[in-house]
Fold these 4 entries.
Entry 1:
Amino acid sequence: MDTVRSIIFYIAWALWTALFGLAIPFLWLSGSPPKIIRMLSRFWARGILIMLSGIVGLKYVLWNGKSAPSGPSLIISNHQSMWETLAALVLFPDVAIVAKRELLRIPVMGWYLRRSPMILINRDAAANALRQMVDQSRAAVAAGRSVLIFPEGTRKRVGAPIEFKRGVELLYKMLDVPSIPMVVNSGSFWGIGGGPLRPGVITVAFAAPVDPKLNSRDFMKTTTALMESEKAIIDYHFDIK
């Protein structure tokens, strides 16, 4: 049954996305206004989350009722599935997501991502990618937007330890905004391997803001510990349900 529901969901997702392709000529003729494109992107993502709930039975909840932070922040999240990328567009108004440039190849939404704009980096050019990431993140914060980064660099399997790659400590030092760790357990329902989606409730947990005055080593150690603690709590909660 999970397989059938997943197939129906992916078909619905494709049809929903195609509708947004119809708007591209009109947006292009009007100068591709970023605010309208971001609004439509959030509407697109919200529709997918509604389809996940209605078709698959996959919902989400904010742990202990903690709401998403308001105002420009550096959101530091673990990465287990496509879900958190979609949900970020709904959870955080005007978020700029640090993502790999390959996402531009996605039909329809690649056009929207480029013009939102998101912070798209070329991982093959490491030094240049870091510089572009910092510059674009600064521009996003100056415009009143939050920045979301998945510092593990790729999706990780459930149970894998949280390990940061280079880059997040630079944003921490250079942006001068609150740093909020976020943890999800989406991989328990939407796996890396592309198997059928499972019904259930994804938990989103926000840890306490990280002290902005830490050095790079202490920042990495503290943030990782906070995220591992939150992950252990929501994993335990999931296991006993």
Entry 2:
Amino acid sequence: MTRPRLLVLRALGLGDLLAGVPALRALRRAFPGHELVLAAPAELAPVAAATGAVDRLLPASAPGRAVPRGLDWDGPPPDIAVDLHGNGPPSHRLLQTLSPRRLFAFAHPDTPEIDGPPWWAEEHERDRWCRFLQFYRIPADPADLLLPRPAGLSPAPGAVVLHPGAGALSRCWPVNRYATVATALRGRGHRVVVTGGAGEDDLVARLAKQAGLPDTDVLGGGLPFDRLSALVAGARTVVSGDTGIAHLAVAHAAPSVTLFGPVPPSRWGPPAHPRHHVLWHPGPQGDPHGRHPDPALLRIGCEHVLDALDLLLHTS
């Protein structure tokens, strides 16, 4: 007998996938007999596997946060299709082209045939998708987001990890400020390691040069997920903007300091816990995909980051 298939669309980035882990696990529990297929970028396959909720990843992506033009779906239509990508309507329509037996999606005036819950723009991302599933009578716990400890050894156990990059310049704290923090930490006897995503080698190199870091402590070029995961899980603290590695620190219960600018932590921040510190100056919300550092982000000074680190490093 053919196993029914449940297709989940979330063709976004690392942080998006990690924020969606509680919803994915809720779907796994609700439909244990289905093959759960996640439509997401191919490079996130190891992350999807680590969640324990996904049977197979269907490669799907588009520039920015756009909806893919199509899905390379084969065989009969999905028994259930779940739109975890956004509030539609393009993502709704993409899934509708596959003629699923059931479609779970947020309500949108341009797709009135879908009876879904309302979208609340200011809702926290983890809470949003759990509330969404609860509308369909699927219990979901926003706190169910931890990943298992990586099997591999950290390339820099006990280091303070600085990650200056982000998906947009509006969420990138200036490199010279990261360098000031790195220099101060090294002066206090801490090992500092710098990481960067794919295409961020120049950014990482500038920080390393300004801080005088040895080559052994420069991990640029986009680490494979297994190494990045082991690094974060074994870190003394992770310092970054509002980007994927901050969510990975949450997933591995690693201490973190996260710098928020255009978007407040009430929408994308870590759970309330002493090991996670958020830095943010309230003000009008900016563009999370802008081309210049957000003014609210620039209001965070080096002394603010070092003070937060002092609290974590003295208690961890």
Entry 3:
Amino acid sequence: MSDSLSETIATATKSFSPLPSESVPRYAGIATFMRLPFYSTAEATGADIGIFGIPWDGGTTNRPGARHGPRQIREQSALMRKVHPVLGLSPFSLANCADLGDSPVNPLQIEETLDKVEHFVDEIVARNIIPLAAGGDHLVSLPILRALAKQHGPMGMVHFDAHTDTWDRYFGGCKYTHGTPFRRAIEEGILDPKRIVQIGIRGGLYSEHDDDWGLEQGIRVMRVEEFYELGVEKALQEARRVVGDQATYISFDVDCLDPVFAPGTGTPEIGGLTSHEAQRMVRGLRGLNLIGADLVEVSPPFDPSGATALLGATLMWEMLCLMSEKVAQRKR
């Protein structure tokens, strides 16, 4: 690396801005989310949005691999640029953004990992940094929500997924799996079920009563058939109606998309959203009171090409744009 290139990288990493791709090749430098500077949580004074990984898939019941998701998403996120051409936003000009590294995990202990992730996010929230996480399997949403609830109380959620993830227990008594996080969150009072909308739900069930519990709690379940009957704009109207203007979290499982677009995931279901529909849906949440988000279930072993990770990185960038606008509005 030339001295000038080293100096450019050193200068850029002292700010909250991505490395400039016009002078530093996208393949150069240490891989971070969207080429942002890395700060430990303790060092991130002044950051508004913190992006971090949760490299863990101990809640997976069938096809593991999502523990490798954050690393591949980081690599693919080097393709993100600075200006959103549709929304007209420049997120890195609106908010101070940083890569906060990866949460500590224990690949052999579920509940210990849940505690570690919760404490990691506690530190982020305590510094008034909005968390944007890359999983990991979907169980990682639970400790993030636990941490956020301490500040925001029961939250609403826009949940993109092929599965409701409100099932109870697997293999007899295990209540913490990637199919149960939102049942636990509702039981713990950290999600308001009447302010949850689930979009893209499809696939077979273990029994005809599998989804009854969530419906009984008041969750608005939008199966993929209804999504296509409504179309993107009306689906967005319904989602915005459900969550309202109170604190809202976005959780996006890449298996919401058809496996043609996202083959690298543990529980693929045919008949899902296209990548462009997913972009439009996230963009359409502009203006909501967003207090955090995650993108989960990218499993690189099932897609060595990196296409699923690129999709995940792009959707995280879409979420980042929405968050950065809210940060700018709050500062004003």
Entry 4:
Amino acid sequence: MITWVRKIWKVAARPSVHYSLGFLTLGGFIAGVIFWGGFNTALEATNTEAFCTGCHEMENNVYQELKTTIHYTNRSGVRATCPDCHVPHEWTNKIARKMQASKEVWGKVFGTISTREKFLDKRLELAQHEWSRLKANDSLECRNCHDLEYMDFTVQSARAEQAHSTLLASGDKTCIDCHKGIAHQLPDMQGVEGWAASAQ
């Protein structure tokens, strides 16, 4: 193995005999453009609702729940897709989220939630991971569409107006603190610390 690595290194370190530096530089640039284009194409292909619902675990569980909410069908015709809520828009955050999602591929390969029963057993844990992520980034994905600055408090209920104008505006709370279960059904929350008080 070491001999093979040394042989490769020797070839890579040897100066080019047949090609000019300009040719190698141009070739490297073109290869870089092709790689970058392919990488971004793959990134965008994995950032679509069709990709997200391509496996039966998502198609048969959370996607069916989303279809019954205002985020899927509403009077304005604006619809949130899976990546809108689960993938940050900013490039560096998007890459970090994609790296986190590699654990989801692992779960798919090993059938972690391959049946409805397995999904329901893991649902609370999965939800808590997502709630923690949204809490940590101040509900960034929510705020991509819902901006406090443009909310019309006069058409909100008294409770919503009070929460948005004080708690949310003060920075004490973030969207996910109050809006768990907004696009998907809540898991069984029995025994979750602090849930009974916040649900009242």
